[in-house]
Every structure is written in C-alpha cells, then in structure tokens.
Amino acid sequence: MWALILGLILFLGPHSVRIVAPGWRDARLAAWGERRWKLGYTAVSLVGLLLIVWGYGQARLDPHPLWATPRGMNHLAGLLMLLALILLAAAYVPRNHLKARLGHPMVLAVKLWALGHLLANNTVADLVLFGAFLVWAVLDFRSARRRAGPRPPAGTARGTAIAVAVGVVAWVVFAAGLHRALIGVSPFPTVG
C-alpha cells in the first residue's frame, strides 16, 4: 500500500500546486522558465503514476473489502465512464459545446471516473486510489472555476458531435476488452 500512497502524493502533488500554492508556482515558473517547470512536473508525475500502477496492482493481490458492493454498480459505473470518456474527449476536441459550457471537462471526467470506480469497487486500495482522485478533482474544479482565464471558444455542432463520437468509441473499446487487457478485470462480467 505504501507504493500506492507515495505514487498518489507524487502524482497528485504537482497537479495540486495550482490549487494550494499558486504564488509559489508562479515564482517557480518565473525563476525556472516554462520548459524546466514542465520537465520537473512531468518527471515527478510520471514516477508517481508508475508507483500508483504498481502499488495498486500489489494491493489488489491482498484485497481488504470494506463493504458489500450492491448489485448493478458495475453498470452504473459503466454509464458514468461513458460520460467521463465523452468529457475527456471534449477536453481535446476543438470548439465543442461541452468545453465551452463546462470550461474544464477533463477534471469533470476524472470526477466521474473516480466516482464510478468507487461505486463498483469495495477494497481499501480502491478507496485510497479512487477517493484520492475524487477529492483532488473536486478541489481542482473549484479552484479552476475561481481562476480568471480565457473562456474556451464557442462550441459548434460538429465539434460536439466529434467529441461525443470519440468518447463513445473509446468507451466501446474499453468495455469490449481493453479494460480487461490493461487492468485484468472486465467492467461487465457475465453472470454464470
């Protein structure tokens, strides 16, 4: 569990600097320059991500359930993941209504991903991993909404349709087997 927790600190820490220490972040950017800041940010985050993946995998070998997961939660999580993947696509597809309206669709996607996985999973490791990301996403979204910045460009029907289509295709690919191949668990196990 230590690797998972250390990974979360190293990954979410740099992603939280703008929330908890924006002045320090601005000072580092000014002192180091954008390139050096981004290299350090990326390096620490990558080490954190690798520790999260390894630590969560290790924690899954010795699960400690906290509650009985209600029937059908994997289907609710699947629906939330569909919405999350559409929002994730909206973060990158130019000129879509979702980004224009919501401003920060990627952070909202993280919220839905974490919430869905908390609903469908029940171990200590799940609570630590998905709970940490959910708390971070809530705080980051609030912080981002308070920061002044340029509004995203107005959305178009074409941009929105592309974002939705990319999200749906990504969801189908994950549901059809990529989640099982990467994580080792089918999001929709068959009854039998």
UniProtKB/TrEMBL annotation:
Keywords recorded for this protein, A-Z: Membrane, Transmembrane, Transmembrane helix
NnrU domain: residues covered: 4-187
Recorded GO CC terms: membrane
Major place of residence: membrane
Locations listed in the record: Membrane
TM region positions: 37-56, 76-93, 113-139, 160-183
Pfam families: NnrU
Its membrane topology: Multi-pass membrane protein
InterPro entries documented for this protein: NnrU_dom (IPR009915)
Domain of life: Bacteria
Protein name: Protein NrnU
Lineage: Bacteria, Pseudomonadati, Pseudomonadota, Betaproteobacteria, Burkholderiales
